[in-house]
Amino acid sequence: MTPGGNPALRLPLLARMANDMSHHGSLRRSTAAGMWAAYSAHTALVTWSLGRQPARLRIPARPAQVAGAAISAAGFGLCIAGMRRFAGVEELTGTRNQALLTAGVYRFSRNPQYLGYLAALAGAGLSRRSGAALLSTAVLAFAYSAWIPVEEQHMSRLYGRDYSDYCRRTRRWWGRRG
Questions:
Q1: pLDDT tens-digit profile of 89-141?
Q2: Are 113 and 83 in contact (CB under 8 A)?
């Protein structure tokens, strides 16, 4: 996928990630470092916004806390379940390709880390009733929706029919097909 086909891929980091995947077959270490720096900055922004008082959503505190904690815990668990399937840091960061993962949590989601991370952040935002945290999580979801098609093209090139079959069985976010 070219940056011109998706407006979000015009963002410098996403464009660099897409370029790495199409030209190098994986992320370069410097690009992976930039990606993790962006994750860290986003996490810091969410953490900061969770403590801000002015942007509180007008929803009852106790139900928001309970539902938010449950969503956050489930999301964190899903993210960890997806990450632990990788054999090492290079595979997790995208700087080295690995075997196609289709077992475990990958039977139910092609992107359990992304889904889990978004749920964990959204749950935290809900539990603190933070509109700013939920908004920044929505921005990240937009970035993921731009990035995932690039990853999928790369996976299709790497794994061919096996990946196509996997996509027919497993939804991008959650659920089995047919």
A1: 666 566 667 788 898 999 999 999 999 999 999 999 999 999 889 999 999 99
A2: yes
